[in-house]
Amino acid sequence: MSDEHQPGVLTWGVIIVVTCLILYLFERVLWLVVPGLLALVGYYCLQPLVQALVRAGVRHQTAGRVVAGLLFMATVLALVLLLSLAATRAAGWQAVSARYVQGGLDFLKKTEGALAERVPMLERSALVRSTPTNLDAVAEQFVQKYLSWLLLQAVHWLPSLLLAPYLTYFILQDGNRFKKHLIHSVPNAFFEKTLLLFDRVDTSLRSYLVGLMKLTFLDTISLGLGLWFLGVPYPFMLGLIAAVLAWLPYAGSAAGCVLVTVVAAEYPDPPLLTLMLPTTVVPAIEPAGWKVRSVAWKFCT
Amino acid sequence: MKLPFHFLRGAAEDRKLEAHKALSLFKRLTARELRELDELLHERSYQKDEMIFDEGDMGLGLFIVVSGRVKIESSHEALKRLSPECGPGEFFGEMALFEEAQRTARALALEPTRLLALFRREFFSLLEHDRGIGVKILFELSRIVVSRSRKLLTSQPHLPTI
Fold it and tell me: What is the ipTM of this complex?
């Protein structure tokens, strides 16, 4: 096979530089990129509803307003419920977080002990010797330091995230018109090719984002049911957090897996843990596993 | 069930929908169906002697003449002999709506021309969501294509299937 179409060093160099530049720029405007992406998710999930209203005889703009209005009301309602819940149960959450951190550290200590028993060389290693012995103090310090930081970050991101329903409204309302204007501005010679390009981008984005939402829903349900079966408090919220973390490729799935393992470590009953594994850990690591399999398949073929 | 939102429609939109309704391909569609279809139609303007598509290009959709005239030229004997033209309300490139194949003719604007384009993939998504509209358009399209085929067979100088 001829290699004349293979990208050379210069092409790869340009790709890496452009990727770094995009990541740098995105990091600077992350406050806009994140709600923008959420708005795209909202658009693809809610567009069928707008189309259903249009088929029922409602004008497109009115249908867009109605659906975006419902989304905005749902967001406000969710925020109000979350804030009122946070106000009444903040102390409880702190205690629960401390318990989970404590459980995680206990789990780490037990795992290290078990490993050291089997592999004596590890007993002398820096990793085992550096593990803190006063776990209660460490857990307390961790919660005080990071829980408040997490809450501050959540408050910091709140106005930015409120942009998501607002942007969804504009995409639902004028997204198609904007797309038509963009296509209209293309010279006639490239008209059909541009239509095809837009269609392919639209189809790929729709499949990916709607699929991601379905996966999030399934992960939340399976994780929530597993945690609920164990009697863990706030099972579906934890399930949702782990499922949302899985949106980030590889690192998110790993973080979700760590979260679930830390929670599972707090409930060390073997039969229950065995029952929980397929419903919690597997969905948490499944996206990463699926991606690894996809990449491996591509390399093999 | 239709909801009472029709009073909110704009006059410009009404005029556009009336213009669509005047086209033979869409004459059976209701106002609601025309409104839904309008989301998928792309309006294009061409100068005199500007090429709309060339023979051998990959066909991706159908074109409907709103105003102006379009000449169809082809290396195929039947089309070359007939040298058809399309006027307002007529359409061409309909084969691309059914199969992803190369165009069998070249389309040229004979004068400043305004066209509506219906892209195959968008038309298929419409068919999936609302078969009623699809059936009406496809019925009208089939009727016109059959009429053209009959005329082609009897060698009448009218637009054959492209």
Answer: 0.76
